[in-house]
C-alpha cells in the first residue's frame, strides 16, 4: 500500500499517537510517503513510487472534485509529465469536445495556431485556464525536441458541441455522396451553425428541432450509410478521412440523441459517448498507445450515479472495455479556494470553503495530518474497521463548472470509494485556477430599457455603450465595435468584422443587448433594424436575432429557458442596407429579452437604426 504526502504535512500529527485517531485516519497516516510538490518540471525523483501503482495500465483516468482547483490541475500536469517520461504515455485526452480539440492537437504536433485561441474555441471555461495552457505548451516543447521521437497527441473525448461534427460530416458527404449530402443538409445543416451565445459563454442554445424525430432519423441514416457504403467511400477518399468523418458523424448522432425528448437522456448518452470516443482514440493510435485522461471525478469513477437517473459513468463503461488496463484516480480537497460559475450571477468567481464536514472522506485524510497525498485503494485491508468503513458510500466534495453558495450541501457526491476509484489523491488546501482572461466570464448586464439603438455619439473602434461585445470574441478573431466608415443614417453604425486567417473552434461573433421583459409582458415585441453584409462566397453567414427567455435557472449547467428564438431565420445577405423585422409574443413568464447581430465565419456586417417597441396583441 502506497501513500504520497506533502513534505511538511506529516509533521502535523507527529506528536499525536495514531491510536487516538479514527482507524481510517490512523491507517492513512501510517501509509504516508512524501510528495515534494505539485509544480510541473520540478524533477521526478519523488514520483518514482508511482511506477508500481500505475503498473502496466494503458489508460490512467485522473479526476477532479471541481473544475477550479489550481493545485489539482498542476499536479495533473506533473503526473502526465511523469507518465510520459517514465511510462511511455503519448496521448493526452481532455473532457472537451472531440471535433474542436483537433485544433489543439494541430498546435501540439506542428506549432500551427495559437493555443490560447484554440482553448477558447472548445467553449468550456474550465479548460480556458493558465494551468491547462501550460500543460499544452509543455506538450509542444516536448514534441519540438528531436530526441523525443514518439510525439505526444492531444484529444478531446466529449460530445457537447455539434457544430464542427456537423460541418465535417456534411463536407465529407458532399465529396462522396451528393444526394445523401443534400438530404442531410436539409435536416442537419442548422447544427453546423455556431450561435455562441455570450450570455451562455458560447454554448449553443437548446433548439428543440435538433433532437426531434426527423433529425434523429437523418443522423442515423448518415451513420448507417457511412458504414454500409464504407468501401465505396474509402475508395474515394482513403481510409483515414473516412474514419475521421465516421467519428464526427457519431459525435453528431450522439448530440442529437442526447438532445431528444428535452434532453431526458443527456447524461446517459454523454457518458457512454465519452467512453466510446476514448475507445476510438485507443484504436486509432494503436495497441501500444497509452492515454492520460483528464476529467471530473464523476466521469472517471467506476460507478452508477443515482442523481443523474442511475446513469453508468464513462468510467464504468471504460472499466468494461479495458478492465485492469484502466487505472482510475479520484481527487479530494479539504478546504480552500476554487473557481466556478456562480449560480446566482452566472459569472466566474472564486469561492472559499472551510474544512470538510466530519462525515466526509476529506475529513479522515485531514485528521491523518496529510497535506498532499495519494493512496492505492486496492491495498485496503481485507477485513477490520478500515475495510468496513470503505465498504459503504462516503461523501466527498463535488461540484462541476458551477457552485451554489446558498446550498453548499448540494456540492457533495457519495461513492463506495474502492469500487469507484483505484487511487485517491488528497490536497489539504487549494487555490483557484487562473483563467486565461477572467473578463471573458463576467456577468452580462440586463438593462431596464433599450438604449443607444442608433449608435450615435460613438468613438470609432469602441464598443457600443449598452451593448454586449463579448471580450472572448476578440480571441477568436472578431472585431466588434462602432464605426463611422459606413452608416445608414447619422454618423455611426455598429460593426462585426472577421478577416481571413487561421481560427480555432466554431464561434460566431455577436453584438447583443439584453433588456428586462417586464414592460413587454402580455404584448408582442417588435424588433426592427437595418443591416448590410460583405461576406465572401461560402465563407460565412450573418443574421439578426431576437430571443425571449424565462427566468434563469440556478443550475449553471442549464441553458436559458427560451420562449422564442428566431435563430438564423433573418439572414443578412445584401451588400446594400436593408430593413429587417422580427415579432414575438412576450408571455407573463418572460424575464429577459435579447436581440442583436451575429456573424458566423468570415466577412463584415453592419447594424444601424435599431428599434424595439411593443405591439398590442
TrEMBL record:
This is Erythromycin esterase family protein. GO terms for biological process: response to antibiotic.
